[in-house]
What we know:
The chain is mainly alpha-helical. The protein has a domain at 62-288. The protein has helices at 2-29, 34-46, 49-74, 82-99, 104-133, 137-160, 179-184, 193-210, 212-222, 224-229, 234-260, 273-283, 288-304, 308-312, 317-331, 333-347. Helix 1 (2-29) packs antiparallel against helix 15, helix 3 packs across helix 12 and helix 8 packs across helix 9.
Amino acid sequence: MARNRIFNILIPIISVLLGLIAGAIIMLISGHNPIEGYRALWNGAFGDAFTLGETARRTTPLILTGLAVAFAFRTGLFNIGAEGQVIVGWLAAVWVGLAIDAPMYIHLPLAIAAAALAGAIWGFVPGILKAKLGVHEVIVTIMMNYIALFITNEIIRNVLTDHTTTTEAIAPTASLASEWLQGITYFSRLHYGFLIALFAAAVMWFLIQRTTIGYELKAVGFNQHASKYAGMNVSKNIILSMAIAGAFAGLAGAMEGLGTYGTISVMSGFTNLGFDGIAVALLGANTAFGVVLAAILFGVLKEGAGEMPTGAGVPTELVDIIIALIIFFVASSYIIRWALIRFKKEGK
C-alpha cells in the first residue's frame, strides 16, 4: 500500500519532467532556445500580478472539470461528457443571471445551483441508461456533448436573444467578479470562483474518503457483483456518481458564465474545458488534491503559452505538444513503474 502511494506521487512528477524535457528537445531541434522558451512561459504565467490573476482564472474551471472526470473514475465510470455538462451549466447560470431579479445573497447562489443542477441532469441521463439498460456511458456522454452544444446554441439564438449570437451581461447580483481581486491583479479576470473550485475539491475528498456514500461508490467501482452481494444498490450508486460528476462540470460552466465572461455566446465548437478535464484527472491520479495540482500546471502552461511567441519566438502549439507528451507518459505509467522498481532492485 505504501509503495503504491509513493508510485502514485512519483509517476505524475516524472511524467511532467519527461514532458518538459521532451519539449526542450523539440525546441532545440526546431531551432529555438528552450531556456528562453520556458522563461517566456514562466513570465506569461507569473510575470506580474495580472498574469498571475489570469493563470488562477484559467485554472478555476479546469479544477472543476478535472473533479468531474476524477469522481466518475473513482467509482469505475468514464465521464467523457464533462464538456456537454460545462455547456449546459454555463447556459443555466447565465439564464438565471438574466431572468431573475433578486438580492445578491439569493441571486448568486441560485445561479450557481442552477448550473450544478443542469450539469447533474446531463450526467443523470447516461447514468440511468448505464444502470438500467447497460448502455456504455462513454458512448452516451459523447453524444450528449453534441446535444448540449446544439441545444444551447438554439436557446441562445431564439430564447435568450432576438436571433443574435451573444446575450446581454448578467445582472451584477449574479456575478462572481470582484473589484477587490481585479484591483490587486491589475484588472485581470480573476473572480471568487477560484475559491469555489477549491471548496469543491475539498467536498469531493470528504465525500469519497469520509462518508458512507463515498465508500459505497468506490466499492461499486471496484466490483459491482461483490457490492451487490453485500447489499449495496448498484444502480443507485451508478446514477448518483454520474449526477455528482455532472454537477462538478456544471459548476465549471458557472465559473465561465458568472465570472470570466458574464455572458454566453453561440459556440462554433466545444470549449475543450471538459476534454482538458480528462487530462487533468489522469495527471492528478483521480484524487482531489492531485486534480488541483494538475489543474494549476495546465493553467500555467496554457496561460504562459501566450507569451512564448513574442518572448522567445516559440509557437504556442508547442505547449499542446508538451501537454500531450505529459499525458502520454502518465498513460505509459507501467513503464515508469517498471523502471522505478528495476532501479530500486539494482540499488540494493
